[in-house]
Input
Amino acid sequence: MKKKLSAVSSQLSAGARPRILAGRWKGRRLDVPKGARPTSSRARGALFDILQDAIRGSRFLDLFAGSGAVGLEALSRGASSATFVEGDSRALERNLATLGAGPEEFEVLREDAGAAVSGLARRGESFDLVFADPPYSLAATLSRRIEVLLAPAGRLVVQTDSPASAPELPGLSLRERRAYGRNVFWFFGRAER
Output
């Protein structure tokens, strides 16, 4: 009986792990850091339906990456590269190794988002798509630096839980809000000058 219960519990935990929804790694399951709250498959699928025309060949930045599910989905669907920012990157690095992502496709920055954004800005990096799912106030973390990381036609997508209001980010203007259950996506672009 013990063996049966163990098999059932491991099936349940495997079923709870997010999977890549489309592209070259479609269907592959991902490890998740303890205590993480991954974006639901439904919400992630909807996000990539919205972004589909912008993904192929894009440079993608996944802030507060956790398991890397969003950035890995972008790579799977044809992004040219992804930069992942995650202080505890063990699950993310296991996922990158398991999927067989090439070292030229990704960079992992093992630091907090504020430091990573400042460092990327100092290096003159720019991204077509930036995704941020912060566990706390985004504006306090990123201050004015996030704007300089966006390519001229780049987009920032901020994920919040449903009761939260839109983050205010200097130099960026809110373009759209989409809600999928508890997941809300706020789409920003550079402010018109």
Notes: Residues 172 and 191 are 5 Å apart (CA to CA). The longest strand covers residues 150-161. Residues 1-15 have pLDDT under 50 and may be disordered.
